[in-house]
Amino acid sequence: MRVSRIQAEQNRQTVIDVASRLFREHGFDGIGLKDLMKGAGLTQGAFYKQFASKEDLEALASRRALEHASRRWSDAAAKNPKDPLGAVIAFYLSAGHREERMDGCPVVALGSDAARQGSDVKASFEAGIRQYLELLGGWLGDAHGEDSRDKAMAVLSTMVGAVVLSRAVNDERLSKQFLQAAAESVRTASRTMDVQPGPHQ
Predict the structure, then answer these.
(1) Distance between alpha carbon 23 and the CA centroid of its chain, in Å?
(2) At what angle do helices 54-79 and 84-92 cross, to 10 degrees?
(3) Over the chain (201 residues), what is each successive 10-residue block's mean pLDDT?
(4) Which among 50, 87, 112, 182 could bridge 76 via Cys, Cβ 3.0 to 4.6 Å?
(5) Is residue 47 assigned to a domain?
(6) Number of folded domains that form the chain
């Protein structure tokens, strides 16, 4: 039975959505096309009608995952407009986010994998990381003439690194300490500058 163009596009978007979650859970090399397509409710044979290669899907899925992650930051900030950075810290550096293997931050889940991928996958990560930095830069003021972009880079590095480390250990107490120490470090850094009520305000 022939699939309509509309259905084919819906199937393609479903595969991208499912892959964005399964790649975060298993890594790019930890899951094959058969299981990816099965997760989307489709056969492996349908893959090559929709994507040029697995790397093509990796790049699209990475972009989708990072766009979703940026929206989560914006949504968290919107719920607490007086302290947007604090709101993002509260959810990102939490035990709940640490446990979100399929839906958590793709930079945490796939950053080291992305470093070994081709330019298309890296381009997706670069776009997402730049969006993170733009959001952070909008919330971090420039009280002492310091470059808010440099501060945003330091904050992002601290937050991502803390979640990576918190996931890498068995000791629950140590895991929580990584998250708590990073949260305190970021809060301390933000207190040395003006924290804006929202991005670009």
Answers:
(1) 12
(2) 130
(3) 82 96 97 95 90 96 98 96 95 96 96 96 98 93 65 96 98 98 92 56 40
(4) 87
(5) yes
(6) 1
